[in-house]
Amino acid sequence: MIIDVLTLFPDMIHPVIHQSIIGRAILEEKVEIRVIDYREYSENKHKKVDDSPYGGGAGMVLTVQPVVSALEQIPGYQEATKILMTPQGVPYAQKTAHKLALKKHLIILCGHYEGYDERIRDYFDLEISIGDYVLTGGELSALVVVDSVIRLIPNVLNNAGSAVEDSFSDGLLEYPHYTRPPEFRNQKVPEVLRSGNHEKIKQWRYEQSLKRTIERRPDLYKVYLKKK
Questions:
Q1: Residue 115, in any domain of the structure
Q2: Which ranges constitute the DSSP H helices of the chain?
C-alpha cells in the first residue's frame, strides 16, 4: 500500500510514522508513506496557500491551486482513493478502516485555516471526520486514519487475530482483558479466565462485550440488535 499525506506541516507527520507499528510496517515494506508539503507547489511568489473568502467573513480559506498542483504530481493520483479530512465529512468508523485497508493507494489531504475553497472537494472521493469537534489542522485526524488502516494490513500485527477482536469489529465494544498477576491489591482475575475452558471463556467474553456495550454505547447496541 502507498499512502500520500498532503500537509503544510510535514514535521507533525514524520515523527509519528516512524514509530511503533507504523514504523515497523514501513521497514518491512508493507506500506510506503510519502509526506508532501503542498506549500511548495504554490504559484504565489510568497508561497501563500490561503486567502480571504469571497463575500467576507472571519478567517482565511485554503486556496485551490497549491492543493491541486500537489495532487496532480503524485503518480497514479487518478486511480488512488483521495480523502479529504474535514469536520463536515462522514463520521469515521471501523468498517471504513477495513474498506480503506483493501485499497492500494490512499491520498489524504490535511486542511488548515477556516476551510477549503469549495472547488478542492471536486478532486476528492471521500470526506472523513473523526468526531464532532474542530482541530487546528488535519494532521492529527489524518494520522488517526493512517494508523487505523495500516494495522489492518495483513501481517502488520504480530497477532493476526487481534485486529479481528478489536472493539467495533463485530459491532460491540471489546471485552475486559487481564494478565499476571492473578491478584493485585485484592483485585482478582475472574476465575473463568484461568479455568482453561475455552468455551466458557468465549461465552464470558461475549457476555462482557454485550454488558459493556449496553452500559457505555447503547447506540451501538441498538445497531447490533438490528443486525442480529
A1: yes
A2: 10-17, 20-27, 64-72, 94-101, 139-150, 198-216, 218-227
What is the pTM (predicted TM-score) of this model? 0.89
Enumerate the active-site residues. 87, 114, 151, 166
Number of structural domains (the chain) is 2
- If one counts every other C-beta atom within 10 angstroms of the C-beta of residue 11, the result is 10
Tell whether the model's pLDDT for residue 72 goes beyond 90: yes
Judge whether 105 lies within some domain: yes
Q: In sequence order, what are the residues at sequence separation of 6 or more whose Cβ sits closer than 8 angstroms to the Cβ of residue 166?
A: 94, 174
Instruction: Please give the Cα distance from 69 to 84 (Å, whole number).
Output: 16
Q: Are strands 187-188 and 105-109 parallel, antiparallel or unpaired?
A: unpaired
Q: What is the β-pairing status of strands 32-37 and 2-7?
A: parallel
Count of CA atoms in the C-beta half-sphere (13 A) of 3:
27
**DSSP letters for 151-166:** TTSTTSSSSTTTTTTS
